Amino acid sequence: MGDPKKIIELLLEKYPKPKIELNFSNPLQLLVATILSAQCTDRKVNEVTKSLFKKYRRTEDYAEADPATLEKDLKGITFANRKAEQIVKACRILVEKHRGQVPDSMEALTELPGVGRKTANVVLGSAFGRPAIAVDTHVLRVSNRLGLVESKDPERVEEVLMREIPREKWTPVNLAMILHGRYTCKAKNPLCEECILYEECEWDEKERYRQRRKG
Ligand code: SF4
């Protein structure tokens, strides 16, 4: 296994103040943006939420919306139809059970349609500042390549990372890993030759990628 301590240190050195790349200014906005970001780029989501958040300001605005109208406001978002329905249903539950507020617990968040552990952890970590590890495709890939974990199961990966990373560093390390996966340890053509984690990484393809770029 790669040395978790060293990996954490290097990640936080490279990304000292890591931030989520979805734009938001309150928990409701982050919840909506995160639901929209499933299989969609953050850039597209930010483009759409720019006007969406002006039109839908309160939980009630989504809860009272016709899903078909909301879908039209999600132009360019993948699976807009399904996501519009999930957001309307989720916000109806927020109005009925939580006085329109986004709850700050894993249990209450994952009761909402379209909200799994990953989305809940994004909201807990970045909107509420709670220690949280959201395992998305980047975290899954980076932690496996580094040798921190050997599993394709997001829940198992979350469990192992929670054990290996000190609790107070869960959120920043998680966000740093996402950035690292997005810009360096990319799915195709990872930039191993310029990776700060090269020495710690256990991926058996890393040398090949490093040489390929050098050549
Ligand atoms: S050396 Fe390559 S595979 Fe390993 S973490 Fe860095 S970019 Fe990813």
What does this molecule look like?
The protein has 215 residues and is mostly helical. The chain has helices spanning 4-14, 27-36, 42-55, 59-63, 67-72, 80-98, 106-109, 117-127, 137-146, 154-164, 170-183, 206-214. α1 packs across α11 (170-183). The chain has 12 helices and no strands.
List keywords for this structure.
215 residues; mainly alpha; Endonuclease Iii, domain 2; Endonuclease III, domain 1; 2 domains; 12 helices; binds iron/sulfur cluster
SSE inventory with pairings:
Elements lengths: L3 H11 L12 H10 L5 H14 L3 H5 L3 H6 L7 H19 L7 H4 L7 H11 L9 H10 L7 H11 L5 H14 L22 H9 L1
Helix pairs in contact: 1-11, 2-8, 9-11
The structure holds iron/sulfur cluster.
What do we call the CATH homologous superfamily of the largest domain?
Answer: Hypothetical protein, domain 2
User: For the terminal residues, how far apart are their CA atoms?
Assistant: 29 Å
Order of helices and strands: HHHHHHHHHHHH
Structural class: mainly alpha
Main β-sheet description:
none
Helix share bin? 55-70%
CATH topology grouping of the largest domain? Endonuclease III, domain 1
> How many distinct beta strands?
0
Bound molecules: iron/sulfur cluster
Give the name of the CATH architecture of the largest domain. Orthogonal Bundle
Radius of gyration: 18 Å
CATH class of the largest domain: Mainly Alpha
Mean pLDDT: 96
Total tally of structural domains: 2
Tertiary shape: elongated
Give the number of helices.
12
Low-confidence stretches: none
Strand fraction band? under 5%
